[in-house]
Amino acid sequence: MTRYQQVRDELRRAPRSWLVTGAAGFIGSALVEELLSLGQRVVGLDNLSTGRARNVTEAVAAAGGSAGSFRLIEGDIRSPDDCAEACRGVDVVLHQAALGSVPRSIENPLATHLNNVDGFLNMLVAVRDAGVGRMVYASSSSVYGDHPALPKEEPAVGQPLSPYAASKAMNETYAGVFGRVYGTGTIGLRYFNVFGRRQSPDGPYAAVIPKWVGSLLAGEPCVINGDGETSRDFCYVDNVVQANLLAATVQDPEAVGRVYNVAGGERTTLNTLFRALRDGLARREPALAGAEPRYAGFRPGDVRHSLASIDRIRASLGYEPTHSVDAGLTAALDWYVADLRPAAGAAAAPHAGSVGS
To answer: Is 292 part of any domain?
Structure first.
């Protein structure tokens, strides 16, 4: 039996109260779905600025007839009062709320700071004041910045290459300070290019996979920034859910107060990703078999290659990815097609999509 299966069994026997910030996002809603399926009591906090209310509705429905309970607070992590209310009576906080996207942070660094740094600090204070036992928070592979080594190992970070990366590095700094000064139990998870069901294709900052699926279904070219040999460690959302629950429940005090890579541990180029998406969709829509991408210039703030070492999270938390990139795409494509097909004919001009994390 894997450590994750043990954790799931333990939670069924002894339910806890959880807060998921960013509950209407695709990662947050996946966490809500899993927790409810395990019979947990869950509070969600989201201002619905980038998340979608229907994500929560779908997550609750997907949990089926579980014994779990759910309450959504439509609030904002930039409000200390909203954070305090959400943390009241909670055992564990899974903090996913943030303003994502490297390009958006370059265009509007102040908004990124207000959400990702001020909002994070508000959550830390609320967790401290409410006596919450554990806060697991979403960090990012972007904190590795210009450090050239592959694979990326947690102790070795470089200079941030965007305001988004700087905000996530600051989260890790503040979490460490709160652990040392106040004894707040935190664990940071550095996500590597997460994808999966309920991931939005909308807007200029959408992640690359749903954006490209939408473009292909609409008959529009997918835009690849650079030569297509930029590579990423794409990680299916179920792997991220596993990592959060393992981090939330680990008992070893040496495992707390640290950061861990969350990834699949495999590198995929954008050219390879495009072919995988095109070929997967062509099995459903044969006319897409001949689709080719369009290439554009490299994008400011992007790193060239990213690959995670997952040795630390395996050893300390018992993490073991259940989905490779191919398995994750197989699981996600049906959802993407069902979600995007009704609107595909009305798609606007193509976008490159974001490959930051």
So the answer is: no
Residue 242 lies in a domain: yes
Catalytic residues: 164
| Number of domains forming the structure of the chain | 1
Peptide bond before residue 151 is cis, with ω within 30 degrees of 0: yes
Tokens of 124: 């830390």
Instruction: Indicate the pTM of the whole model.
Output: 0.91
Residue 191: which of 327, 315, 306 has the closest Cα? 306
138 φ, ψ (degrees, to nearest 5): -85, 115
Round the CA-based radius of gyration of the chain to a whole number and report it. Answer: 19
Residue 31 lies in a domain: yes
pLDDT tens per residue across span 181-222: 999 999 999 999 999 999 887 766 568 898 899 899 988 899
DSSP conformational letter for 18: E
Alpha-carbon gap, residue 24 to 185, rounded angstroms: 25
Within-domain flag for 306:
no
